[in-house]
Design goal:
The structure holds 2 protein chains of 2 kinds. By secondary structure, chain A is of the alpha/beta class. Chain A has helices spanning about 1-10, 10-15, 20-40, 90-100, 130-135, 150-160, 170-180, 185-190, 200-215, 230-245, 255-265, 285-290, 295-305, and strands spanning about 55-65, 65-75, 80-85, 110-115, 120, 135-140, 220-225, 250-255, 265-270, 280-285. Chain A is globular, with a radius of gyration of 20 Å. The model of chain A is unreliable at about 1-50 (pLDDT under 50). Chain B has 13 helices and no strands. Chain B is flat. Classes of the chains: A alpha/beta, B mainly alpha.
Chain lengths: ~300, ~350
Amino acid sequence: MEGKKVSATVGSSEKKEGATESGSEQLSQTAAAAATTTTGTTATASAAGVAKTIEVRDVNLFYGDFHAVEDVNLTIQPNKVTALIGSSGCGKTTFLRSLNRMHELTPGARVEGHITLDGEDMYARGVDPVRVRRLVGMVFQQPNPFPTMSIYDNVASGLNLNAGKIKKSQRDAVVERSLRGANLWEEVKDRLDKPGLGLSGGQQQRLCIARAIAVEPEVLLMDEPCSALDPVATLAIEDLIGELKSRYTIVIVTHNMQQAARASDLTAFFNLEESGKPGRLVEVGETEMIFTNPTEKATEDYVSGRFG
Amino acid sequence: MATLSAPPGGQLASGLLPKWAPYAVFAGSAAFSAAVLAATGAFTIALMLVFGVLVSCVAIYTWSRAVEGPRRAFDRTMTMAIAAAFGLAMIPLASLLFEVISRGLPGLSLEFLTEDARGKIGGGGAAHALVGTLVITGVAAIISVPIGIMAAIYLTEYGTGKLSKALTFFVDVMTGIPSIVAGLFAYALFELFLGPGIRLGVMGSVALSVLMIPIVIRSAEEVLKIVPNHLREAAYALGTPKWKTITKIVLPTAFAGLVTGVMLAVARIIGETAPLLVTTGVIDSINSDPFDGRMQNLAVYAYSEYRSPGIDKAASYDRAWAAALLLIAIVMILNVVARLVYRRYKTEIHR
């Protein structure tokens, strides 16, 4: 088969369709190998590969007086991809941002209820949101590499900003491992010192994923990571999500049903009964069940496109 | 005019005036106005231009309406009016530059730039004023830039409540302080501690920083505001503390704009005269220590050379013009440097 030949030269195989699968397999193996070799030496790597469970109990989210999301109860399982779907304005993104305490950055926003990360309440008194965010990383809708930094510095930014002094060799290893983990290494290894903004949209988004996984989070939140990307770049990100779930707990917000169906293991459907009312979690379950045999009428209407 | 074709039959195309039409209309209108004014015996160049603009607005409207239709006719009339307004605004600038350069160049010499005026009756240079201007402004910038940028950081990154509203309000008030009041404030402040009649370079710097701080705050605030929020969020999501997000992400992203704002603020205060007259005094020799005695500067130098000329009045006036030219040149250089810095370091921000 052609695939075998090409997999020997992984670098150039990325774009060839026939070779994509074996190529990326190879990549993930090398990435895993890189991860294991550096685990012992990297200061921040102690938590590598420990995906965590997030328990959400009776969570209500507010913007000032506006009740945005009501009474969410949900268990987000480790090493699974959980997709949040629902119409615009129903609070998916707001809910996602409450999972790493980004919600409260909006002036007037507040959270009621309990969200625990492996049993530890992340909203307990005395919990520093900065520590929560180190464990729960996030990828945004718009690719947002730091415009002043090169590709290398973007990936290393989490370490440079937070980890204090580390040896250059260690940093090099983390950058390479993260870029390999984001399936971007072969495309950028020769121009690591070029600005991150010089990459294409899809590459920028993978750069942002590399930046997020460079700090070894335990959970990765993704807020419509593909909505600004073309179908080819979207496919690359979806493949990547499939690989990343072996090491992280992943929560992804998406408007794209096919994406939820393709990329996720569990799906949670949020709905807004009418505008002005808070959004609610209608139903959560195995993705296949949600898309083929949902228990709620609203879910069926939404996933089958008969909504509104 | 009669030779102009009727609008073609298509739905999209219509007639179009030739490219030279606006210029020709203006030239024709000016000539027409000149002729009418000459006939009535009231000819001046200014009147000719004023009437020329008015007549050409009417003429281009009529012509364009006949050929191109009402929308384009209105567009052409407005273009003509705006071009005239631009020309009007350029007249003072051009005439000022012409006057200062033509009168200042003769007095500008190596001696003017390198020698002071100590003991040189009716002669000497302005080196002491040049040094004074640079020192006083430099110290003012050292005082103002940290205060201004930190205040702007507070306003954009931290302030949400009443304090930030009050701060914004008082910054606006400060922008409107007359410069002489700033000078008197600095004088009163130092007199309180050092006794009456005190004159120091640093007093001038304090007076100038009262004027400079609000400008720096305003420009820095604008620049920090346009740093997109998603960059801050990206840093937060990596577990970055707020102060590091500001120092490592927000400030570097806004660097070019911050430098430009500071340069322009310096350019704005470097020519102040009144506050320095009451704080730094007048002196003939070079003094580069802002904490020791009187200090001359270019604006006050130009003023005093004109106000109390030496025996050779013409030479004194020449020196005043030369000092003015030097000051304008410094401001120009600062502006150009600000632009270069901006171009070199500006951050492309995708939204």
